[in-house]
Each structure stands twice: as C-alpha cells, then as structure tokens.
Amino acid sequence: MRTLLSRCGIFFAFIAIALTSESLANTPLSRPDPLLIEYPEDEPPSWREIQLGKTLFFDPRLSHDHSRSCASCHNPELGFGDGLPLSPGSDGQPLGRHTPSIYNLAWGSVFFWDGRAATLEEQALMPIVAEAEMNLPMAVLQERLTAVAHYRNEFNAVYEEGLTEETIGRALASFMRAIVSDNSPFDRHLAGDKNALGPEAKRGLALFVGKGRCIECHSGANLTDDSFHNLGLGGDDPGRAEVVDAPHLRGAFKTPGLRNVTLSAPYMHDGSLPNLLSVLEFYNRGGGEGHNRSDLIQPLNLTQRDINDLLAFMGALESPILIKRPEIPR
Amino acid sequence: MYRFNTVYGGLLLSLLGLSPSVLAADYTVRLQFEKRPPKTALLYVPGDLGEQSQAVVDQVDKSFTESLVVAAPGQAVVFKNSDEVDHNIFANDMKSGARFDVGLMPPGGEKNIPVDWKADSLVRIGCKIHPKMRTYIAAVDAAYSKVMEFSSATSDYSISLEGVPDAAAQLLLRIPKYDPVVIDLNDPSTWTATLTKKGKTRGSFVLER
C-alpha cells in the first residue's frame, strides 16, 4: 500500500513537472501591466512632460543640420521604424545597425541591440550626439532650445532644474514610455474575449509557445526576455560582446519585443530579413550559419500551415498607435 | 539608567552562558510609501553577535531566488546556478568598489566571491545575459536582519520584527537608491522617520514596540 502510494506520488510529481516545465523557465505571455513600469521618479510623468518630450522627438533642431528628428528614423507611421534595412546616417552612408521599433520600452530593462544603455534617459541623448546620427553637441542643443520661448517655458514649468542636458533626456524618455501598445486582438484574447483570435491565430499562439519554441526568448508581456542571443545571422558585428567582456556573447543581440512587429519590416539587427515570412523560414531552417549560434535555435519542421498560423498570430499582436504630429515651436 | 540595566543584564546573561536571544524584543515597523514602493529593503541591527549564516545567491527561472542577500564583509558569497540556462553574474559598483565577474556559469555551477569591497554598502548584482535579473548584496555585519519585499500595488506595510536582541542599540533601514535611515532603539522619540530618495520625501517610517 505504502509503495503504491509513493509510486503514485512520484508519478503525479512527474506529471506536474511535465505540465509546468514550459512555463517554469519562461515568463508567460501576458498583458502589459502599468504597475510594473519603473519610473525614475517612482510615478508616471505628467501629461505636460510627455507633451514636451513628444515635441522634442519630432523637432529637427535636435540634428546638426536641422535635417532630421528622432521621428525621421523612428517614424510612427512606419511602426516607429523607417522601412529601410539600414537608415542613412548624417553623411548619407547607411548606419551599422537596423533602426528598431520603440513600442512598450517602458517595460524594458536595457536598450539598443547590444544593451549598451541602462535607462531610456541615458539612451535618449546618445543619438543626438552620435556623429553618424544627429551629430549635435549637447551644448549647442541647449543653446538652440533655450532660444525658443516655448521650450524655456515648458522646461521651467516641468522641471525644478529647468532646461539641462539631463532634463532633455528625461522629457524624451517620458514620451517614449508613453508609447504603449496594449489593445491588440491578443490582449483581448488574454482578457477573456473568446472571439478575439481567429482559428489560425489561435493555432499560431499554440505553435509560438509549443513546437515553434519562440517563447524560449520572446516571453512576457512584450514578447521579449530582454536578453541576448545569437541567431547565427553572421557578419562581424560583435553585438553584446562589445559592451560586456564576455566572448560567449559574440554576435548576440537583444531579443526584440514583437508588439506591432507586422508594422516594422524589415527585420533583425542587420535589417537582412525583408518580411515576416522570411523570418519564419529562417527559424524553420534552424537559424543562420553564423558562428556561435545559440543552442536554443534548432530546425523546427514547421509545415506551410504552421507558418501561416504563426504569421496570423503575429498579426494579432498589432495595435497601431496613432500620433498627431506636434507643431514644432518657432 | 534604563540602558545601563539592559547592557549589564545582557552581560550577566552571556557570562552565565545564556544566549542573548533570551533577552529579545518584538517590534512592529510601519512603512508608507507616497509613490510606487521599491522592490526590496533591509532592516538590520549592526553588530557581530555570533555566527552569520553563509550568504548564498542562487538563480532559478531566469531570476535570483532572493531580492536581497546579507553578507558579512571579509567573508564570501556563494554564487549558485540552479537554473536550466547559463548565467553570468557580475557587479560593477563604483561607489563601494564592488567589481567582480562570476563568469559564464552553466546549470549546477557554484563559485565563491570574497566580499572585499566597502563595508556597509548595498550593491546591485546583475546578469550579463539577462539584464532583467536583479538582486542586492548588503555587505554588513548584522546581529539581526530582516529582508522585506514590496509589491507595486500596495503602499502601506506593517512588518513585525521578532526576536531583536535586547542589547541592540541601533536599527538601520537600507533601501536601494533611498537615503539610509538610522534609528536609536534606546530613544523612542527617534522612532519615526521620513523616507527620502536623493533628499526628496518618498514616505514614512514608524517603529513601535
């Protein structure tokens, strides 16, 4: 009797492990929770601070020759990208990496493809001064903004310190944290709406967390583990290994979130995959041939129908954000 | 006069070979945060009363198992990986001089790192592969300690501290990024404090016996 019981115990424990092993290692997919956002001031920014950041985001004053704003590369009408494999830099030459979308970065813990910025505040100032991007020294930007009555007023109203390098970063970061996509068909499905997803997207979700193994890296509310992996795309970009002294992370890049991913083709850090179908075919083959590829990337044996279902699921992550372009103050 | 008695009483008891915990007190701490609360905090009584348990930092499911670990300066922290994936734990804290890299650690790995940085510091520990992972090491000699965890949805907390050694003179509160709070246990008039972050008010602290 006792042995029988204990055998049952082991048996049930085994079943329990088998059932939960999927969710054990990965944060389940979920709706973005505003309570989990870590604001630098421990509370959401004011509407006025967000508006100030938004105006800066669209203002070409932030570039050396007044030719481009943040929105030139992160265009809200193009999924906060620019539709190009590589955006042209300030000298017209293509940049070294593809311009990522910037949805739901409020939940992010590390920024850029290689994670070299720890906060959005820090990140926001980097493209302004980067020679290849906006190429504008901070001192010149401060002078330019101080000369505009609107910016003087707004910075003084929003920040005790007024207009400083730090508050420029804070304003831009506050706007970016407000770029939240959380009303997709998938969110409605998670909220209990049984008709939110069609049969293809439902099967696609099952493949995403099952046979396709996407959940190994694209986990949590924004479908990213905010970690670094090498998919074997190749090329000589060291990726994460350039930022932290860790040779095993050579060629590893940050897992991008997949919210609104349908809007921001082309894909990958090098912009080398033109559309989502090519991304899925890439994963199905077992990734690229490049050196140091992650063991998590394996051939998937997805059928044509599986691929279509996964495409439908990614379509169900779409919830576009309409942004009225602000008037640029004179 | 009162303090005199306690100290002498404690001495007498230790001379008699009785554990100082015989003379212990229970307190309640009330914390209120005005904005979103922090993730974790440490309350402790500084001092070296006997053995401090071995500090262990472990990892499961791409997270640290503890939100904060207390380690005695001069001793070692054991880093373990009970996860199914590789990790690479490191610290790089200018203020305390805590700079170490545990290196790539496969599942089942274990490594000791000496606590050779500034004492009385609170250092953030991360993983190079999984930047979301976060825990803290408090390098303090603690005769008593209690780690608290907070949820972002709740702003009021009441926490009981049981068995605080009666000889304890001070209680310290350390919260990452907040200014430290020091309470004189012998002077109940200091038992309320304002919680501040870079000098800005963020909440209140009340100690009751």
Automatic annotation (TrEMBL), chain A:
Subcellular location: Periplasm
Domain Cytochrome c: from-to ranges: 48-149, 199-318
Amino acids binding heme c 1: 70, 73-74
UniProt xrefs under Pfam families: CCP_MauG
Cellular component annotations (GO), alphabetically ordered: periplasmic space
Keyword Heme carried by entry: yes
Domain of life: Bacteria
Enzyme class: oxidoreductase
Keywords: Heme, Iron, Metal-binding, Oxidoreductase, Periplasm, Peroxidase, Signal
InterPro entries, alphabetized: Cyt_c-like_dom (IPR009056), Cyt_c-like_dom_sf (IPR036909), Cytochrome_c_Peroxidase/MauG (IPR051395), Di-haem_cyt_c_peroxidsae (IPR004852), MauG/Cytc_peroxidase (IPR026259)
GO terms, molecular function: cytochrome-c peroxidase activity; electron transfer activity; heme binding; metal ion binding
Cofactor: heme
Cofactor detail note: Binds 2 heme groups.
Protein's recorded name: Cytochrome c peroxidase
Signal peptide: 1-25
UniProt binding sites for heme c 2: 214, 217-218
UniProt KW Translocase keyword: no
Main location: periplasm
EC number(s) on file: 1.11.1.5
PANTHER family xrefs: BLL6722 PROTEIN, CYTOCHROME C PEROXIDASE-RELATED
Post-translational modification note: Binds 2 heme groups per subunit.
TrEMBL record, chain B:
Entry keywords, A to Z: Signal
The UniProt record lists the keyword Signal: yes
InterPro entries cross-referenced by the UniProt entry: Cupredoxin (IPR008972)
Signal peptide extent: 1-24
Domain of life, source organism: Bacteria
Name the record gives this protein: Plastocyanin
